[in-house]
Design goal:
The protein has 307 residues and is α+β, with helices and mostly antiparallel strands. Helix content is 33%, strand content 23%. The protein is built from six helices and 13 strands. α5 crosses α6. The relative contact order is 0.11. The chain binds copper (II) ion.
Length: 307
C-alpha cells in the first residue's frame, strides 16, 4: 500500500477525481465564455436574436450529465470516507486529550505522552476527548481530521504504513495559542513500541481535570488566570504547581510553595498572601461559593498544566 496511512489512497483518489472534473469545467466554461464574447459581440450583432426557443433535449442533457458527475464525485468521496468510521476490532486504543493549548495521549496501560507514539502496520483507534473547548485532530500526511468536542465521544482510526515522524495539529481555532497545539505522530517498529509501553505512568485523572476546568470556567477564574503562561491581571495556572513564589504578608516578603494548602488559602482568603508583583484586593473570596471538593478539582486542573 502506498502512502503514510491506509487512508491516503482513497482520500487522494477522491481529491484528484473532484479536482479533475472541476478543472475540466473551469477551463471548458472559460474557453466557451471567451469564444461567445468574441463571436457574438455587439459590433457584429447589433440586433439580439429573439428566435431562440426551448429544447427538451438540451434540458435533459444538462440535467443528466451533471447529475452523473456529482454522483461520481459522491461515490469516490464516500468510498474514501466510509472506512474511516469502521474501526477494526483489533485496534489499539489511545485517548487523545485536547486542551487549551496542548495534546496528551493516554495509552491502554495508563502511560501518557505529548507525542503520539504508534507501531507501524497496526490499526490505532483514537478516542477524542476535549477538557475545554472545540478542537480538531489533524494529521495531514495520514489524510485524517476529526473534531474534538467537549462532552461528545468522537473517534478516529488509522494504520500507519511507513516509519517516520508526522505533524499532528489542531485544526479548529481554539483561542489565542491555537497554533501551539502542534506535535507529532511517531511511527516506530513493533519491538520499539512494546519496549516504550513497558514504562507505565500514573492512572487517569482525566475526569477530575475536566471537572476542574469546568469549575474555573463557571466561576469566572479564567478572566484573570490564564492556562498557558500568559500574564493577565493575575498569575497564570501553568507550571506553577510545586514551585516557589515570593508573597507579601502584611507588607513583609515571605516564600511559599504552591501546594494544596496555599491554593486553598488563596481561594478562600485571596488577599492574605499575594504574590509579589500583583495587586492585592482584586480577587474576591470564594468562601461559600466553592466547596472543598471544588477546590480539589481546581488543584487537579492546575497539576495537569505542569509540563
Ligand atoms: Cu485546539
Amino acid at each position: 500500500m502506498s502512502g503514510a496511512s491506509n487512508f491516503v489512497e482513497g482520500v487522494d483518489l477522491a481529491f484528484y477525481v473532484i479536482l479533475g472534473i472541476s478543472s475540466f469545467f473551469l477551463v471548458g466554461i472559460t474557453a466557451v465564455m471567451i469564444y461567445f464574447v468574441i463571436r457574438y459581440r455587439k459590433s457584429k450583432n447589433p440586433k439580439a436574436d429573439t428566435s431562440i426557443t426551448g429544447s427538451n433535449k438540451l434540458e435533459l442533457i444538462w440535467t443528466i450529465i451533471p447529475t452523473i458527475l456529482v454522483l461520481v464525485m459522491f461515490y469516490y468521496g464516500w468510498a474514501g470516507f466510509a472506512p474511516m468510521r469502521d474501526v477494526p476490532d483489533d485496534a489499539i486504543n489511545v485517548k487523545a486529550i485536547a486542551r487549551m493549548w496542548s495534546w496528551t495521549f493516554e495509552y491502554e496501560n495508563g502511560k501518557k505522552s505529548d507525542k503520539l507514539i504508534v507501531p507501524k502496520g497496526k490499526p490505532v483507534k483514537l478516542d477524542l476527548i476535549s477538557v475545554d473547548v472545540n478542537h480538531a485532530l489533524y494529521v495531514p500526511a495520514f489524510r485524517i481530521k476529526e473534531d474534538v468536542i467537549p462532552g461528545r465521544n468522537n473517534y478516529m482510526w488509522f494504520t500507519a504504513n511507513q516509519f517516520g515522524s508526522y505533524d499532528l495539529m489542531c485544526a479548529e481555532y481554539c483561542g489565542l495559542r491555537h497554533a501551539y497545539m502542534l506535535t507529532t505522530v511517531e511511527v516506530v517498529g513493533d519491538d520499539e513500541w512494546v519496549e516504550w509501553m513497558k514504562t507505565p505512568e500514573g492512572e487517569s485523572d482525566l475526569d477530575k481535570v475536566a471537572e476542574g476546568f469546568n469549575v474555573i470556567k463557571m466561576n469566572g477564574c479564567v478572566a484573570c488566570h490564564s492556562s498557558d503562561g500568559t500574564k493577565l491581571v493575575a498569575n497564570s495556572f501553568k507550571d506553577i504547581w510545586g514551585t516557589e513564589r515570593k508573597v507579601l504578608v502584611n507588607g513583609e516578603e515571605q516564600t511559599v510553595i504552591i501546594d494544596s494548602e496555599y491554593i486553598h488559602e488563596s481561594i478562600y482568603d485571596p488577599n492574605v498572601k499575594v504574590v509579589v508583583g500583583y495587586n492585592p484586593g482584586l480577587m474576591p473570596s470564594y468562601k461559600g461559593m466553592l466547596s472543598e471538593s471544588d477546590v480539589n478539582l481546581i488543584i487537579e486542573y492546575i497539576k495537569s498544566l505542569q509540563q
